[in-house]
Amino acid sequence: MNKSIVLTDKKRNMIFINIVITCIALTMLSTALTTALPAIVNDLDISVTTGQWLTSGYALSMAIVMPLTAFLITRFPTKKLYITGLVIALIGLLLCAISPNFPMMMMARILQAVGNGLLTSMAQVILLSIYPLEKRGAIMGWYGLSLSAAPVIAPTIAGLIVDKMDWPAIFYLASVIIVLSLIWSIIVFDDLLATKPQKFDSPSFVLSALAFGGVTLAIGNIGHYAFFSPQVLLLLLIGVAGTLAFIHRQLKSHQPFLELRILSNRNYALSVLGSMLLYLVMMAATMLLPLYVQSVLGKSATLSGLLVLPGSLIMAFISPFAGKLYDKVGIKPLFVFGACGMLISNLGMVFISMSTPIWVAAGYNMLRCIAIGCLMMPLVTWGTSYINPELTAHGTALLTSLRTVSGAIGTAVFVGIMTTVSQHSVSSYGSDAAIHGLNIAFLWMSGVSLLLLLMGIIFVKKDVLFGEGQLIKTEVK
């Protein structure tokens, strides 16, 4: 933070409220179209496969823009960059609302993803910079609501809007919120983060786009194409080659585009790995539960939305509480408790059957959401507190990029496991083949959760505490 800027508690809170409202509005749009997609496909006269690009293309654009945010945050003044992100997102929202065809709407979704990616990265860096160490856990817990509960609630809200009005209303509503946020940010924001002259490294950006974009797109295509097809294997090879070239260039550079050397810090590396394992399971569960209700049980989309709603509400409650708890006890208890919750909730889904009451799955999802609330933002806060404050932008950009790719991998892999097992189990399980596929997918997700738990027990050390729970950034050997 620039030394000339003195922030009062009131101004910090005004900035925080602005950030949270903005992120809730934009984050909801990452999943809202899953419910509105049938209506959009019908109105634009496109196939469902083409329409899916409105969500997969959004995720791909997010994956590409995330590594770029570290450069932008350290190069340009905070207020101008934040307002620019809001304007880009607003243009994308308005274009989506009036789009008469697919190309225009696809371009608009890319603009939304660019704005959301920039604002999400900036939000974490700003909050970690303007609040003292002993308050970061609590404040990041509250901020975590916009990143965790909003995407889960969004499909239910979008469904109600589509039923009562039409799908453009989703984008008009979000636009109104972003306009208010834009006015608010002009009034309350300052140049909060230190900047420095830095030359834009074009080759590194191209390599990062090939790396993160190639892997994300290849994994996303697995459910639609054979593994050895160009749409999967070729893109995956491009992504892996881009990743290796990107890593080599960053490690050789004196002023890297994305500072990868921070992974040499043990605690930060553990926070990144923990976040990746969390997203691997979390995003898969988000996709599998609607499939369980609609495809396996044959129930309505509304019921699938209601199934996850209690968990979302609990997450909204637990996330700030977990943040405050992190400030008092450190990461170890939250890590172990959260990983246990993930393991139990996924194991429970292994044993459900066609005759199991649907509220049982809702109960397991509630436990999973409690676990996510205990892990998501505390992991970010913990990891970034162990790196140089000047590298916070790089730390959040790297962590966010890797967990986004991990989430895409988890969704593709575990949905693929469910589909494949179901198809090969028809002769043995008959009408129960689909639920058997779901059971096996959650069994593998339980294995990932077990790895997360073992990591928390064995490798994560207790933080040293003093006074009113304030953390000393020293690792206990």
UniProtKB/TrEMBL annotation:
<feature type="transmembrane region" description="Helical">
    <location>
        <begin position="334"/>
        <end position="352"/>
    </location>
</feature>
<dbReference type="InterPro" id="IPR004638">
    <property type="entry name" value="EmrB-like"/>
</dbReference>
<comment type="similarity">
    <text>Belongs to the major facilitator superfamily. EmrB family.</text>
</comment>
<keyword id="KW-0472">Membrane</keyword>
<feature type="transmembrane region" description="Helical">
    <location>
        <begin position="15"/>
        <end position="41"/>
    </location>
</feature>
<feature type="transmembrane region" description="Helical">
    <location>
        <begin position="401"/>
        <end position="421"/>
    </location>
</feature>
<feature type="transmembrane region" description="Helical">
    <location>
        <begin position="268"/>
        <end position="289"/>
    </location>
</feature>
<feature type="domain" description="Major facilitator superfamily (MFS) profile">
    <location>
        <begin position="1"/>
        <end position="464"/>
    </location>
</feature>
<feature type="transmembrane region" description="Helical">
    <location>
        <begin position="228"/>
        <end position="247"/>
    </location>
</feature>
<feature type="transmembrane region" description="Helical">
    <location>
        <begin position="441"/>
        <end position="460"/>
    </location>
</feature>
<dbReference type="InterPro" id="IPR036259">
    <property type="entry name" value="MFS_trans_sf"/>
</dbReference>
<feature type="transmembrane region" description="Helical">
    <location>
        <begin position="301"/>
        <end position="322"/>
    </location>
</feature>
<feature type="transmembrane region" description="Helical">
    <location>
        <begin position="142"/>
        <end position="163"/>
    </location>
</feature>
<feature type="transmembrane region" description="Helical">
    <location>
        <begin position="169"/>
        <end position="193"/>
    </location>
</feature>
<dbReference type="InterPro" id="IPR011701">
    <property type="entry name" value="MFS"/>
</dbReference>
<keyword id="KW-0812">Transmembrane</keyword>
<feature type="transmembrane region" description="Helical">
    <location>
        <begin position="358"/>
        <end position="380"/>
    </location>
</feature>
<feature type="transmembrane region" description="Helical">
    <location>
        <begin position="106"/>
        <end position="130"/>
    </location>
</feature>
<dbReference type="InterPro" id="IPR020846">
    <property type="entry name" value="MFS_dom"/>
</dbReference>
<dbReference type="GO" id="GO:0022857">
    <property type="term" value="F:transmembrane transporter activity"/>
</dbReference>
<feature type="transmembrane region" description="Helical">
    <location>
        <begin position="81"/>
        <end position="100"/>
    </location>
</feature>
<feature type="transmembrane region" description="Helical">
    <location>
        <begin position="205"/>
        <end position="222"/>
    </location>
</feature>
<keyword id="KW-1133">Transmembrane helix</keyword>
<protein>
    <submittedName>
        <fullName>Multidrug efflux MFS transporter</fullName>
    </submittedName>
</protein>
<dbReference type="GO" id="GO:0005886">
    <property type="term" value="C:plasma membrane"/>
</dbReference>
<keyword id="KW-0813">Transport</keyword>
<keyword id="KW-1003">Cell membrane</keyword>
<dbReference type="Pfam" id="PF07690">
    <property type="entry name" value="MFS_1"/>
</dbReference>
<feature type="transmembrane region" description="Helical">
    <location>
        <begin position="53"/>
        <end position="74"/>
    </location>
</feature>
